[in-house]
Amino acid sequence: MRILSAALAFAAALGLSTGTATVASAQAYPSRPITMVVPFAAGGPTDTVARLVAESMSKSLGQQVIVENVGGAGGTRGAGQVAKAAPDGYTLLLHHIGHATAASLYRKLPYNPATDFEAVGLVTAVPMTLIAKNGLAPKTMGEVVEFVKANKDKVTYGNAGVGSASHLCGMLLMSSVGAQMTTVPYQGTGPAMNDLVGGQIDLMCDQTTNTTGQIKGGKVKVYGVTTKERVKSLPDVLTMQESGLKDFEVAVWHGVYVPKGTPKDIVEKLNAALNTALDDPKVIARFADLGTEPESKDRRSPAFHKDFVVAEIAKWKPIIQSAGVYAD
């Protein structure tokens, strides 16, 4: 009996000790730098969003949030790396709409976007712009439509690879125009932008976070924005719908994720830091300069974000299937 009592007492003490260690561990988080994986090349629009958010989150978390660019395969390489990472809160993923569309675009996706991650919160929804090299002949969106129809495969369109936001925008453009272009995939829209400015490709769709400075600096031509309303930072640029392309709308939302199984209290700590970043006047002002703004508070919770991803997967699946575009 004494042996049994001693064993129970030891077990209880062990359980208490383990529980105390777990609480202490959660309270100590983060105790070292955190890596935020961006699944696209440096210099692109998602990279810009990530660096603004990471800098502010570093201050509230008390540890540096380091952005690591892991480009390739339309964002799936970087996302896959995070899906396999330890669920300890030290590896984050900042991805855009491609996180949801990958579920339908890839036949052999090595992870499930809906179930292999914990959602931390939505960050921003960025408008896109259709831009061109300065030497391209068309002056208006109407002329672009006629130009593409007349030249078809001779017109080159740059994108960041299958599943990227620029790829989705290009698919919608070709569908709306009723003509195909020669697509030129890159390891991110940063390198694509370099070639567009240099005149090596004709057209590209990219987020305002990456194009506003180039447009204002006169380095590229702009034909329209992809949202229903004009962008405050580019008030004179018509929407695609104003230019005659009915129902042409693409907004590129971004969200933060951690691997499945990450403790809830760590997710909540990261969500609190994300909210602080999105309420930071410097971040808000910088987002405005780039033609976007932080998501509203009611859309930043992990629960809303999780349900939103599931809904977006369902929304894009029939569109991608009807286009017949897949990647291995």
From TrEMBL:
InterPro entries membership: BUG, Bug_dom1
Entry-linked Pfam families: TctC
Keywords on record: Signal
Signal peptide residues on this chain, from the entry's feature table: 1-26
UniProt family annotation: Belongs to the UPF0065 (bug) family.
UniProt name for this protein: Tripartite tricarboxylate transporter substrate binding protein BugD
